[in-house]
Amino acid sequence: MTGGRRDPKLAASQAEVTDIIPAVGDDEPPVTEEEPEDAAPDPDASDADDAGGADPSDAPAGPSRWARVGGWLSPRWPRMLAAVAAGALLSASFAPLSWWWAAILGFVVLGVVLTRPATGIGGGFGYGYLAGLAFYLPLLPWISGLVGAVPWLALAAVCAVFPAVFGLLAVVVRNLPGWPVWFALVWALVEWLKASFPFGGFPWGIIAFGQTNGPLLPLAQLGGAPLVSAAVVLLGFGFAALGLGFADWWQRRDTRDLVPPAVVLPGVCVAVVLLVTAVVSPGVRQSGAGAGDDPGVTVAAVQGNVPRLGLEFNAQRRAVLDNHVKETLRLAEDVRAGRAAAPHFVIWPENSSDIDPLANADAREQIAAAADAIGVPILVGAVVSHPEWTRDNPAASNTVIVWDPEDGPGQRHDKRIVQPFGEYLPWRGFFRLLSPYADRAGYFVPGSGTAVVEAAGVPVGVATCWEVIFDHAVRESVRNGAQMLAVPTNNATFDVTMSEQQLAFARLRAVEHDRYTVVAGTTGISAVIAPDGRERARTGFFEPAYLDSQVRLKTTRTPASTWGPAIQFVLAGLGAAAVLAAGFLAIRQNGGLTCPTRRRRKRHKTEGSAGRTAAETTSEEPHDQ
């Protein structure tokens, strides 16, 4: 709480329970009178033993193990259930439900749990981990369809560590004035860590990507995904502080207090988020409506489909290539018949040719035939052998090649961010011992370049599948001159929920950089996305189709395109500074980050040995239970 009138007795009681850093454990029992360590043995007790006194086995038995477990759970289970509910609400903001508002409500619940006086540092970690499990387990089940349940559960368990770290750090900073602000900044710090470590990070589950159907999406144009996430978190914790502040004021209201002072700061935070969103939204909507004199081009995205879902699609590489050639020929026929507009270029998905067309003459002929039929360049997603290829190390590049109908293969984008445990396996020798699925991981090598290719004179920024999740990948292509974005992707090994979640990444990138974005998938979902995040056209999942739509080319840069890294650095840096400041204050005032309850016990024992009474040494009250 940030301020307000409080009952002096209540304040004094709370001051005894929590110092600047709360207790490490939850719900510690009250401190009782302790005997000095140097107390002499009781001679009467010794004599009684010598004389064959009462058998110690006749003493009353202590509580059973289950009774102790029940006693431990009793004060904690409401907060444990609340933490699980908070995580489930965060997950509900993503597809398939896509309830954007659920994330805000989830942070309201989590804020109440983490600001309870009885929630110590250890409790913050534990409740955060429960929330993380409830968040990631229902978010990532599509992974089990590829490699089984164990990797899915393991990945969810690892991802849950980051909300746990947030819970721990939130308890550290919660006594700083204006805790909703510091909570939001600490969350920004933890999201940056999750998007960076380990193995390059796993940004899946960044809160901003669950907001592509919500009113806060326009904020992406100012600060990208980090700013959207911070705004959602600030709203949630701000509403939590408002509720707690009003509840506290209502219980201790004074007729002279018309407004509880403790709600002023969180109220200002909520108002600022809503006001900034209202200011930015009209410009984003105007851009999405096509206002202005930006030149337009017609772009086609081909979704050829695969014979069947699952890893087995790799065994039918020629069938996948044939499907995309066939669908392109159908597009060419519709153009000649006047049923479709003639495109300036065509985008094929990732892995549309898993046969290396630069080395295989048959694949080369098929792609050339498709390009000749449509008469414009095709951006072909292909797997190309890497110069380091050997039989023991079949290294390859995941490549997008601009295939011109006259000149053949030209410029290319080699995927720069390859997916760990999918496209390549870190520590292959080690993980091969843990899972039989290890050998299914690819041997792809990350490429380099500007992430921009030119097709029919149009600079196209390419973010191949996994790359679109990372802020810097798309930002660099825009900075290098991309006037529109292409996201070729392959979801043949996953399901429609995963495809919807990935499509949300592209929608946020379109708003973030004010660029039309075309998503081309082997099985779907392919889409044409306007700069306001709206889908102007989309295909179904697991069906052959093509999209033929006009997009506008843009050259201006948004604040997120220009200042995105600096904004993320400021958000994460302030979160880290808050943690350091809270730790410094704790060390300065209390001598360290030790448990206040145990520290007071030691102080009481020392004072008792100097002559303090038992009543003076048992003033500690239990934590809120």
UniProtKB/TrEMBL annotation:
Compositional bias per record (Acidic residues), positions renumbered to this chain: 25-52
Residue segments, region Disordered: 1-65, 596-625
Pathway: Protein modification; lipoprotein biosynthesis (N-acyl transfer)
Transmembrane stretches, start-end: 100-118, 125-143, 149-173, 185-207, 227-246, 258-280, 566-587
Keywords, ordered alphabetically: Acyltransferase, Cell membrane, Membrane, Transferase, Transmembrane, Transmembrane helix
Annotated membrane topology: Multi-pass membrane protein
Biased composition (Low complexity): 53-64
Segments forming domain CN hydrolase: 297-553
Major subcellular site: membrane
Compartment annotation: Cell membrane
Enzyme class: transferase
InterPro entries: Apolipo_AcylTrfase, C-N_Hydrolase, C-N_Hydrolase_sf, LNT_N
Enzyme Commission (EC) number: 2.3.1.269
Family, as annotated: Belongs to the CN hydrolase family. Apolipoprotein N-acyltransferase subfamily.
Main function: Catalyzes the phospholipid dependent N-acylation of the N-terminal cysteine of apolipoprotein, the last step in lipoprotein maturation.
Protein name: Apolipoprotein N-acyltransferase
Gene this protein is translated from: lnt
